Amino acid sequence: MIEVEVKARINSFSEMEEKLAEIGAMKTKKEFQEDIYFNSPVVDFAKTDEALRIRTTTENDNTNIFITYKGPKIDKKSKTRREIEMGIEDSEKCSDVFEAIGFRKVRTVRKNRQYYTYENFEISLDDIEGLDPYMEIEIALNDDEDYNEAQNSIFKLFEKLGITDGFERTSYLELLENLYITN
Fold first, then answer.
1. Range of the domain at 37
2. pTM of the full predicted structure?
3. Which H helix or E strand runs over 70?
4. What is the pLDDT of residue 64?
5. pLDDT digits (tens, 9 = 90+) for 140-156
6. Strands 26-39 and 167-168, sheet pairing
7. Which end of the chain is less crowded, N or C, counting CB atoms within 10 A of the terminal residue's CB?
8. Could you list the active site residues?
9. Is 95 helix (H, G, I), strand (E, B) or coil?
10. Cβ distance 125 to 135 under 8 Å?
11. Which CATH number does the domain housing residue 165 bear?
12. At CA 78, angle to CA 76 and CA 81, rounded to 5?
């Protein structure tokens, strides 16, 4: 799967919630996410622009756990990249396996995420511990689909919502790492 994703810093969640309601976006769910990121013993993912994480999501009393690999970004405008994800049952055992074979934990990113759908877009309002508010818009494509059209449609939707700047290609992990380095 190819994930075409663009995110932007926003001023406030309530303002975006109003704008999303105005265009007819449907609120679908709210969940807490905890992402534990790992670095490879073979290559430095920060240099290769890859990511490996264990994500635990909690919505009401339901918990789901996934391993996600994200390949390097494939363009200069967005976070378009190949993504492979699979469900697992135990994040601690998975983490133990990763560390036993040489992977090391880099950082944990925690966020509350409110999801919306609009046409073929998945939109999220992200309240990340340690960062300003963000909104992400993404479209999932098959590996053989052209991502340029999807990317253009995402930027048009941002414009429709009044967002024309504040776009960010770096991940929340990278943003937090940069804060840590500068402080």
1. 2-182
2. 0.89
3. strand 62-70
4. 97
5. 888 878 888 989 999 99
6. unpaired
7. C
8. 37
9. helix
10. yes
11. 2.40.320.10
12. 95
